[in-house]
Amino acid sequence: MPGSLEPLDLGVQIPYHFRCPISLELMRDPVTVSTGQTYDRPSIESWVATGNTTCPVTRSPLTDFTLIPNHTLRRLIQEWCVANQSFGVERIPTPKQPADPALVRTLLAQASSVSGPVPSRLSALRRLRGLARDCDKNRSIISSHNAREILAEIVFSNNNISNTGADSSELSHESLALLVMFPLTESQCTAVSSDPDRVAYLTHLLFHSSIEVRVNSAALIEIVVAGTRTPELRAQISNVDEIFEGVIEILRNPIAYPRALKVGIKALFALCLVKQTRHKAVSAGAAETLIDRLADFEKCDAERALATIELLCRIPAGCAAFVGHALTVPLLVKIILKISDRVTEYAAGALVSLCSSSEESKREAVAAGILTQLLLLVQSDCTDRAKRKAQLLLKLLRDSWPHDSIRNSDDFACSEVVLPF
Question: Which intervals hold domain U-box (predicted)?
Answer without folding.
Answer: 13-87
